[in-house]
Amino acid sequence: MAPGACVVKRLFSGDTRFEAWLLRDRLLHANIVAHVFNQHMQSIVGDVPPDVAGPQVWVDDEDYARAREVLEAFRAERERPGNVGCLRCGEVNPATFELCWKCGGSL
Ligand SMILES: [Zn+2]
After folding, report:
1. Could you tell me the end-to-end alpha-carbon distance of the chain, in angstroms, rounded to an integer?
2. How many CA atoms lie within 13 A of 98 on its CB side?
3. Rounded distance from Cα 77 to ligand 1 centre (Å)
4. 84 CA distance to ligand 1 centroid (A)?
5. 63: closest CA among 24, 18, 21, 103?
6. Ligand 1 centroid to 59 CA: how many Å?
7. What is the pLDDT of residues 34-83, one digit of tens each?
8. Which of these CATH numbers, 3.30.70.1530, 3.40.30.120, 1.25.40.340, 3.90.190.20, describes 8-81?
9. CA distance linking residue 65 with residue 77, whole number of Å
């Protein structure tokens, strides 16, 4: 690799360490190496803009496009208000479903 070819980009900036690590885990499953920064900086929030102080996930430039897709899936899953967890098997189902797609249990 040529010098300077390994560029990292900030993919995500979250409120909690937990979120950042969850996302990192997702990225690893997609074979994307992610770096979490600022995970111990919660205590200084207030002195610096939250965007700078919050936990951040960075990825290599070459993985960025793929990482964005993982991030979007991650966000959609967490933010969609209508998702329902199956009481029987724990699978997440869209709120429009009446029966769990996985086990057929009533939602
Ligand atoms: Zn189920």
Report:
1. 52
2. 0
3. 17
4. 10
5. 24
6. 34
7. 998 876 655 555 555 555 567 889 999 999 999 999 999 888 877 667 78
8. 3.30.70.1530
9. 19
